[in-house]
Amino acid sequence: MRPLGQRDRELTHRRLWDIETGQILRVFTGHTRGLTCLFWSGELIATGGNDRTIRVWNVHTGECLRVLEGHSDLVRTVAFDHQSGRLVSGSYDKTLLLHDIYDAAAPDPLVEFRRAHTSLVFHLSMTSTRLISASIRRCNDR
Predict the structure, then answer these.
(1) What integer pLDDT is reported at residue 11 of this predicted model?
(2) Alpha-carbon distance 114 to 36, whole Å?
(3) Domain residues for 86?
(4) What is the pLDDT of residue 115?
(5) Considering the domain boundaries, does residue 140 fall inside one?
(6) 16 and 59 Cβ atoms separated by less than 8 Å
(7) CB of 100 within 8 A of CB of 110?
(8) Domain count of the chain?
(9) Is residue 116 situated within a structural domain?
(10) Whole-angstrom distance, CA of residue 14 vs CA of residue 35
């Protein structure tokens, strides 16, 4: 693995901006490689990166509340539902992982959708009871 260069360090920062003033309100640091996705809802932000992790942040303090692992390739998409406390991630490893973001004692991940797709997972969305995901090719029939 190569050492982190300046460009890599720049890609690992997330910035929260005030759109009225253009001021940076907060900088979130933690991913060790480039950021690939983020999802913001309420007081939480979830980010995924080339380091194969998902991080859950408090938007007001910038504190990293959880680091979630389990993917073997970059995390391309994340979403979560406050009602259920569930976060789902999709990766270039062709899998979806379901995590509980409120219960640190819960198994991590809660559910693994291995071989969910035959190609890279690009996008997903969820409700408290349903999940939809997208890739370049068709999903495996179940």
Answers:
(1) 47
(2) 21
(3) 6-135
(4) 76
(5) no
(6) yes
(7) yes
(8) 1
(9) yes
(10) 8
